[in-house]
TrEMBL record:
Region annotation (Disordered) ranges: 1-36
Protein name per its UniProtKB record: Integrase zinc-binding domain-containing protein
UniProt GO molecular function: aspartic-type endopeptidase activity; endonuclease activity; nucleotidyltransferase activity
Record's compositionally biased regions (Polar residues): 13-25
Keyword Nucleotide-binding in annotation: no
Taxonomic placement: Eukaryota, Metazoa, Spiralia, Lophotrochozoa, Mollusca
GO biological process, one term: proteolysis
Organism in which the protein naturally occurs: Mytilus galloprovincialis (Mediterranean mussel)
UniProt KW keywords: Endonuclease, Hydrolase, Nuclease, Nucleotidyltransferase, Transferase
Domain of life: Eukaryota
Length: 461
């Protein structure tokens, strides 16, 4: 019995003369059944602040914590040991694992039937005996079975017109949390670290995640805190006033980028051709649900589109040789002369297949169209074909198909949840020859180390 008992050794020595309950191991070592897990809303490994109810359990007065986040009712092993041997119920095995709010598993002794008395209300509950710092927990099973309602405002528990008073115990408030070790956190990331709760009964170790607070950033506390670490009290006040006065000049996040016209510069690339880059996407937090574009103003600021609009307005189509000095966009729109139209100063393209009017989008606004058609909350990250159809319902630009393919191929969310876009390969074919030596295949390997014959390549025929 002593070998199989789960109670601590000092408790077994103190109760050697009294017959104890029949306690069996709760560990399932057969490996055939997977143990189920039950979760508690409270952290039962530390003293919890909350509502308690005074009751009698098997004739002994006790205080139980009311916890609607606990799926089962629990009785502490300490309270169970206080019961007289004749009042102790028989303990049955528990195959379930009970996990507290902090993620740790509780030490389970077993489960048994207990007699409870709350005021004039008597009932019998099935409670799990576990290692708790409180005397017990009345969980959701007890509250739901007995039709109990908790009134937090009046601090009472109602049942059948009976009002059972509740006690608010434990320390409530806001406490300072200090990081135990010096930690470096990379930009745009979060880490799980160890810390301590200060100004409490004792330094309690906790585990938490560091993340930015929007309220902290909006009030400018982060900006002031970084700039006044080594300053005196009067200097801090002056710096705080200065920074808060001009806080609109500082970027709050990576997506909060401004512009200035104080300094202008040009990069002379000479005769080098521009390199086409795939459009970059805006973070989800900086996206807008609605797409608002001033098409007329955008086309007026685009040099290529103004060239095409001028040709269409005058009705004079230039020859192909006259388009040689213009960009790829101008040449592509010139080749579609019959479907290009100008209406109210806006350049359109009439789709020959659907007869839809498509607004021609300038270069700098194409990324916004791709984000709206693919990354928007209502876009659902569709595939290439469906996204392209959605874009071409209203918009067009030369190379829209290739830009859509490149943008979706670089979407991190799609790459995580969908299969990669397959690359087409030319099928292998057998080449037939009509006579000997008509076709010769040769493999060349090199450069190798030079040999005596001054040869550095190997060929295979």
């Amino acid at each position: 019995m002593a070998r199989n008992c789960n109670a601590p050794r000092n408790r077994r020595q103190n109760n050697q003369g009294s017959p104890g309950p029949s306690v069996r191991r709760t560990n399932n070592r057969s490996g055939k059944r997977k143990r189920k897990s039950l979760y508690l809303g409270s952290n039962t490994l530390n003293n919890e602040a909350g509502l308690y109810v005074e009751l009698f359990i098997n004739g002994i007065p006790a205080k139980f914590l009311i916890d609607t986040g606990a799926t089962v009712s629990l009785v502490s092993d300490t309270l169970f040991e206080k019961l007289k041997s004749r009042d102790r119920p028989s303990v049955r095995q528990v195959t379930q694992e009970i996990i507290a709010a902090n993620g740790e598993s509780l030490k389970i002794i077993g489960k048994a039937l207990f007699s409870l008395k709350l005021g004039s209300f008597h009932t019998v509950i099935e409670g799990v005996i576990a290692g708790l710092s409180v005397e017990g927990i009345l969980g959701l099973d007890f509250l739901q079975t007995n039709g109990c309602k908790v009134d937090l405002g009046n601090k009472v528990m109602e049942r059948d017109n009976q009002h059972i008073p509740l006690l608010l115990q434990g320390k409530l408030g806001v406490y300072r949390v200090a990081v135990k070790d010096k930690v470096s956190i990379a930009p745009r990331s979060e880490v799980v670290i160890q810390g301590e709760v200060l100004n409490y009964d004792s330094a309690v170790q906790v585990t938490g995640i560091i993340e930015p607070s929007e309220e902290f950033l909006d009030r400018g506390k982060a900006l002031v805190g970084k700039s006044s670490e080594n300053l005196g009290h009067g200097q801090k006040d002056k710096v705080t006033e200065l920074l808060l006065e001009f806080k609109h000049l500082f970027a709050v996040s990576d997506s909060d980028l401004g512009q200035t016209n104080i300094v202008k510069h040009r990069i002379d690339t000479g005769a080098a051709r521009p390199i086409k880059q795939p459009p970059r996407r805006t973070p989800i937090g900086g996206q807008d649900d609605d797409l608002e574009l001033d098409i007329r103003q955008l086309q007026e600021t685009d040099k290529d589109l103004q060239t095409v609009i001028g040709w269409l307005t005058t009705g004079s189509k230039p020859s192909y040789s006259q388009t040689g000095k213009h960009s790829y966009v101008v040449k592509s729109l010139w080749s579609q002369w019959n479907v290009m139209k100008v209406q109210d100063g806006i350049l359109f393209r009439e789709d020959p297949e659907t007869n839809l009017k498509q607004v021609v989008i300038p270069m700098k606004e194409r990324r916004k169209i791709l984000e709206f058609a693919h990354d928007n909350k209502t876009a659902a990250h569709l595939g290439i074909k469906k996204t392209l159809v959605r874009i071409k319902e209203k918009f067009y630009w030369p190379g829209v198909r290739g830009d859509t393919w490149s943008y979706i191929a670089g979407c991190s969310i799609c790459n995580k949840r969908k299969k990669p876009i397959p690359k087409r390969k030319a099928p292998m074919q057998v080449k037939e020859s009509g006579y000997p030596m008509e076709r010769i295949a040769m493999d060349i390997l090199g450069e190798l180390q030079q040999v005596k014959r001054q040869q550095i390549y190997l060929s295979y025929k």
